[in-house]
Amino acid sequence: MEGEEQIGEMLTCCYSNLFATVNPTELDSVLSGVQPKVSDSMNTELLKPFRMEEVHIALKQMKPDTAPGPDGLPPLFYKNFWDKVGREVSEAVLSMLNSDNILIAHETLHYLKTKRTGKTGYMSMKLDMSKAYDRVEWVYLEKIMERMGFDKKWINLITMCIRSNTRPEVQAAIKTFLGISAIQRYEQYLGLPSLAGKAKKKSFSLIKERIWKKLKGWKEKLLLQAGREILLKAVIQAIPTFTMSCFKLPKGLISKIETLIRKFWWGYRGEQKKIHWISWGKLCQPKKEGGMGFKELIKFNDSLLAKQIWRLGNNEGCLFHRVFKAKFFPNCSVYDCEVSTKGSYAWKSIIQAKHVMELGSVWRIGDGKSVKIRGDRWLPQNSALKIVSPVAVLPPGAMVCDIIDQKEHQWISKLIAQEFLPYEANIIKGIPLSDRNIPDKQVWHASTHGVYTTQSAYKLLALAERNKVPTCSTNRSSSNIWREIWSLQVPYKVRHLIWLVVVWEKDAELMKCTRHKFSVFADLLELIFSLRDRTDVNLLCIIMWQIWNRRNSARVGDSIVEYHHIRAKAEAFLLDFQTAQVLEQRDLGTAGLGVVIRDWRGQVVGALAERIPIPKSAATVEALACRRALHFANEFRIREFVCEGDAEVIIKALLSMEAVHPEYGHVLQDSLVLANGFKVCKFVHIKRVGNSVAHFLARRSKSGMSYRFGVRPFLRI
Q: Largest CB tally within 10 Å, which of 30, 222, 468, 667?
């Protein structure tokens, strides 16, 4: 699709089909079975004036901890302070926001502003997009409400709410009565700038003002740093999220926002300044590396914008993709397009985040026809992703399909051994292939399900930057001390104090409580953690916290607890938190598949044991075993089949029809296709103890044993 006229026709056609009526005529036959359900008393109740109590009832039905609204407060706040804010909330009008609408509207307005040629002028009209009732025939709604017995006044009220076409004479009357004229330009659309000119910092300054108002209201509450951390992460850093998903915020504005956050974190009061004991970069590191896990807004902004690129590359049916593809990348994918100087600021913001996609996207091999052997990222995520072996037999521009036997759907082992280094050859042969000639697909290797997530992209960006900074081999951030601190079964404020003291690495009064000599507190803490089997570490940390509080009380002249009473007080204060850690282990070397087929009496009538090159995850082995079991059952022409497995993640994925995992998603798709060939096929999860025979066969096959037998007389159709 090329040219302004074709794009305009496409938009017109889309909305014409979306909102136009088909003028249904035979509604009586459709509604003949609808019986009246609404009584006179129900109509009387419906037609009563709306009351503030009804709004309160609706609020009570909301979950208290759902995502906060534009004001940053969850429903729990309004439930607790309804007596103070109820009247204002009852009169408020809430609207649902949609980033697609914003991006399309921004691009449209940018085009109207920059158009300088031609004799034909254009105008824009602000409409509510994609309302659910616009997808339903309005005359059908009226007729079915009549059949159900709704009062005519109620039907008229509902009709007024859903119809969006105001007659011209009504518009003229309203403008005359109010003394207003048609708006020539919208400064904002859905809370964001309709146009972003050169003064971009000014266009987005409202974000800083909202954050400042929030922080200013919290300063008088004298929160502990543990409380400040929760507020900063849950509210403050969430305020610019919606804007950052559509636009790249200026670095100067982000710097000012992060300055406000840092001041609040370190307890600024008015003009009073306080020392920033730890750098902002350190605070933004993950907790397991010694930081507090705050977000660096520049990286978070890029990760949000990269999600729009992912959507443009994977949601080809949506209007967002169709509009932007027609204008910016009509002859290629969004991953291959270049930045257009004529694009709006929204488009320039999105496309500059391509480096994020290049960091985390990888090809999942199907038929191999779209992926270059050298240059593209297609190796499993635990390896180097790109081929490093020098060119040997194949030409430099060879595709992955050149090393796949398309008929047998297997790797050409001999050619792979000639072309690649031994370790890369083993990795390639361990990549599972589909039984069908499906196309290659780009997936997101940083998430477990192969779909782009903002969180995983942010982690990739942060990790890439940290890897650029050289560190010494004895850097404490790489040790287990941080994990030990945050896994303590003590109140959060105690863990926070222990973390802060370790980061500062200052001598404290706590050092006087031991006969050992340590240069920093972290050394003492590591000794305590090493004695976990003989020491109640949680109680010791509570005692340290009590000693610190005693020191602070004595410093300001408050009453203090005697040292011999501290242990008893710490024991009373200690809460019984529960934590658990599950360590996953997997075998190295080859992998084994084990399959057992039983008849309705439980008798074994078929068994299989095969050895395969091990993939990069145990889940992939389980997916391959499931597919092999379906093939094995199909060989015996079984019509009704129950597939039992002890891999819960695989069984759940098959039951939910989710087959998008970057490594084994296509294997699950093969299994679902095979399952459709049976008269009855069910997937059931069982415990390992119930699958011990198949597990035994799989383990034996790893040592080189291949086994297969079947008793056909028991397996008749």
A: 667
Contacts of 646 (CB under 8 A, 6+ apart): 685, 686, 687, 688, 690, 691, 695
- Phi and psi at residue 161, in whole multiples of 5°? -70, -35
Nearest CA to 595 out of 613, 583, 610, 608 is that of 608
Q: Count, in order, helices (H) and strands (E) of the chain.
A: 32, 11
Q: What angle do CA 505, 506, 510 make, to 5 degrees?
A: 110
Six-digit token string for 341: 């100087």
Strand intervals (E) in 279-391 = 361-364
Cβ-Cβ contacts under 8 Å for 667 (sequence gap 6 or more): 432, 434, 620, 623, 624, 626, 627
Separation of alpha carbons 289 and 703, rounded Å: 40
Report whether pLDDT(412) > 90: yes
Q: What HEC string does 197-262 produce?
A: CCCHHHHCHHHHHHHHHHHHHHHHHCCCHHHHHHHHHHCHHHCCHHHHCCCCCCHHHHHHHHHHHH
Instruction: Give the Cα separation of 336 and 313 in Å (integer).
Output: 10
In angstroms, rounded to a whole number, what is the distance separating the alpha carbons of residues 265 and 279? 12
Angle at 615 between CA 610 and CA 618, to 5 degrees: 85
pTM of the model: 0.59
DSSP 269: B
Domain layout of the chain by residue ranges: 200-277, 488-573, 591-715
The values of phi and psi at residue 359, to 5°, are -80, -30
CB 251 within 8 A of CB 298: yes
Neighbours of 694 (CB within 10 A): 23
Residue 272 DSSP symbol? B
Amino acid at 587: D
Q: How far apart are CA 51 and CA 423, in angstroms?
A: 72
Class of the CATH-defined domain 591-715: alpha beta
Checking if the pLDDT of 579 tops 50, the result is no
Ramachandran class of 607: left when φ > 0, alpha when ψ lies in -120 to 50, beta otherwise: beta
How does strand 680-685 pair with strand 640-645?
Answer: parallel
pLDDT above 50 for 262: yes
Tens-place pLDDT, residues 342-397: 778 888 888 888 889 888 888 899 999 989 999 888 998 666 788 888 988 899 88
Tens digit of each residue's pLDDT (9 = 90 or more) over 659-681: 778 888 889 899 999 988 888 88
Q: Which of 472, 449, 524, 469 is nearest to 284 (CA)?
A: 469
> CB–CB of 445/662 below 8 Å?
yes
What is the number of other CB atoms lying within 10 angstroms of the CB of residue 585? 5
pLDDT > 50? residue 586: no
Q: Give the SS3 label for residue 400.
A: helix
- Residue found under tokens 């709006």: 344
E strand residue ranges, 628-704: 640-645, 680-685
Are residues 619 and 627 in contact, defined by beta-carbon separation less than 8 angstroms? no
User: What string of H, E and C letters represents the secondary structure of 150-179?
Assistant: CCHHHHHHHHHHHCCCCCHHHHHHHHHHHC
Q: What is the DSSP letter of 386?
A: S
Q: Tell me the one-letter amino acid at 140.
A: Y
Nearest-5° Cα angle at 527, 227 to 282: 40
Sign of CA dihedral 628, 634, 635, 636: positive
| Distance in angstroms (rounded) separating the CA atoms of residues 72 and 50 | 27
Q: CA–CA distance from 441 to each of 197, 365, 370, 658, 661 (Å)?
A: 38, 7, 9, 15, 11
Token pair 């997936």 in the structure block, residue: 443
Rg over CA atoms, the chain: 32
At CA 263, angle to CA 262 and CA 269, rounded to 5? 160
Give ∠ CA 321-327-332 in degrees, rounded to 5. 70
For 609, phi then psi, to 5°, come to -140, 125
Helix (H, G, I), strand (E, B) or coil at 307: helix
- Closest to 428 (Cα-Cα) out of 439, 450, 406, 413: 413
